[in-house]
């Protein structure tokens, strides 16, 4: 029913269960492989082995494939693409360094510790993709950034946790694997109040409306471009970040309260909107709009002397940073930003030293 084969001095067993092919790494002993195969065949004969009854018989690629289907149905396109890139990176690592791994039972904490080392030693292009070691580009740098490696490990951990819920395995193989200590992260670029004022005074029309909305809501670019009038609750003064038929928020739905400035702007836009328009910023559907927004931001920054402003995301950072510096606690900032993990919000914690001192001074014993 099954076969035994050897690769790189390691024995594997190959068999089928209900039409599914399963390959399992055994070790250096042929005798042990023979016993393992006989045990499997007995279980199949007794109809005690279904798929996936035992986690060691489940395929790594099978779980990843099922998870990507789940991701497409439940996450945004950008998140799905990012998860696919992480899965592809890990499978590429297995193919290059662990060609004998097929089953989930072959994964161990050591594999993921080695994956971290592998990613930190690859030649990486600016877009995060590995370059060809035989023909390294002059633009390549050594190793993925620490935050990137940690994010990839966290994503794999999430996938295996979902696999446990589905019955593919009983224990997460990343359990006990520690995240890398972040020493190469740059503090997020945010604008001072003076720089924010200069930016808004230096642009007119549609750009002013877009940049003003970013600064006062902290939205992600995709959230702003998919914002519809149905998402605006003037009565409650709330902006709803919610799913659309062809788009989903990165970290789930949330509400952002409107301050006086954004409420006034949106009321003005409502009066000026064309009949039948659903999007607040309809030009967002045009090709290249995202790129043009960034180019306009860079142009204004260079022309009016705002240094190191090259990303739209810096306006989101500005929203969060200004809140923290005005004394808003990090859990509240987390909710407003839509961060799924407080660790993400902690990048702004260095802006709170004065508030920490004030908090301690309130104690009286």
Helices and strands in order:
Layout: E1 3-7, E2 10-17, E3 20-27, H1 30-45, H2 60-74, H3 77-97, H4 109-121, E4 123-124, E5 141-142, H5 146-166, H6 193-201, H7 205-217, H8 221-225, E6 232-233, E7 238-241, E8 254-257, H9 260-272, H10 289-303, H11 313-325, H12 330-337, H13 342-345, H14 353-361
Antiparallel strand pairs: 1-2, 2-3, 4-5, 6-7, 7-8
Helix pairs in contact: 2-3, 4-5, 6-7, 7-11
Structure, explained:
This protein is mostly helical and about 375 residues long. The protein folds into 3 domains: about 5-50, no CATH class; about 60-165, Tyrosine recombinase, N-terminal domain (DNA polymerase, domain 1); about 195-360, Intergrase catalytic core (hpI Integrase, Chain A). About 50% of the residues lie in helices and about 10% in strands. It is built from 14 helices and 8 strands. The chain has helices at about 30-45, 60-75, 75-95, 110-120, 145-165, 195-200, 205-215, 220-225, 260-270, 290-305, 315-325, 330-335, 340-345, 355-360; strands spanning about 5, 10-15, 20-25, 125, 140, 230-235, 240, 255. Strands 1-2-3 form a 3-stranded antiparallel sheet, with helices on one face. A 3-stranded antiparallel sheet has the order 6-7-8, with no helix packed on it. A hairpin with a 2-residue loop joins strand 2 (about 10-15) and strand 3 (about 20-25). It is elongated. About 25% of the residues are buried.
């Amino acid at each position: 029913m099954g076969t035994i084969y050897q690769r790189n001095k390691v024995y594997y067993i190959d068999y089928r269960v209900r039409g599914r092919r399963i390959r399992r790494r055994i070790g250096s002993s042929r005798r042990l492989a023979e016993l393992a195969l006989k045990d499997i065949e007995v279980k199949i004969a007794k109809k005690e082995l279904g798929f996936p009854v035992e986690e060691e018989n489940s395929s790594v690629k099978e779980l990843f494939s099922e998870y990507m289907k789940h991701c497409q149905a439940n996450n945004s396109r950008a998140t799905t693409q990012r998860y696919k890139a992480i899965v592809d990176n890990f499978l590429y690592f297995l193919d290059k360094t662990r060609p004998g791994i097929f089953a989930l039972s072959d994964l161990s904490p050591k594999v993921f510790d080695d994956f971290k080392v592998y990613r930190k030693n690859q030649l990486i292009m600016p877009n995060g993709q590995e370059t060809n070691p035989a023909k390294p580009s002059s633009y390549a740098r050594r190793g993925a950034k620490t935050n990137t490696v940690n994010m990839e490990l966290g994503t794999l951990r999430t996938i295996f946790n979902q696999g446990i819920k589905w019955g593919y395995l009983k224990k997460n193989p990343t359990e006990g694997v520690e995240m890398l200590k972040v020493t190469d992260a740059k503090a997020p670029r945010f604008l001072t109040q003076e720089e924010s004022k200069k930016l808004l005074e230096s642009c007119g029309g549609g750009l002013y409306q877009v940049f003003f909305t970013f600064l006062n809501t902290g939205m992600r670019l995709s959230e702003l471009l998919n914002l519809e009038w149905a998402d605006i609750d003037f009565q409650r003064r709330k902006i709803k970040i919610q799913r659309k038929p062809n788009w989903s928020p990165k970290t789930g739905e949330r509400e952002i309260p409107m301050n006086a400035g954004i409420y006034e702007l949106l009321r003005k836009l409502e009066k000026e909107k064309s009949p039948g328009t659903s999007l607040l910023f309809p030009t967002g559907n045009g090709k290249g709009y995202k790129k043009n927004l960034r180019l306009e931001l860079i142009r204004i920054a260079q022309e009016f002397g705002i240094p190191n402003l090259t990303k739209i995301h810096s306006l989101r950072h500005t929203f969060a940073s200004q809140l923290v510096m005005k004394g808003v606690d990090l859990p509240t900032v987390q909710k407003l930003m839509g961060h799924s993990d407080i660790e993400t919000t902690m990048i702004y914690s260095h802006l709170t030293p004065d508030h920490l001192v004030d908090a301690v001074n309130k104690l009286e014993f």
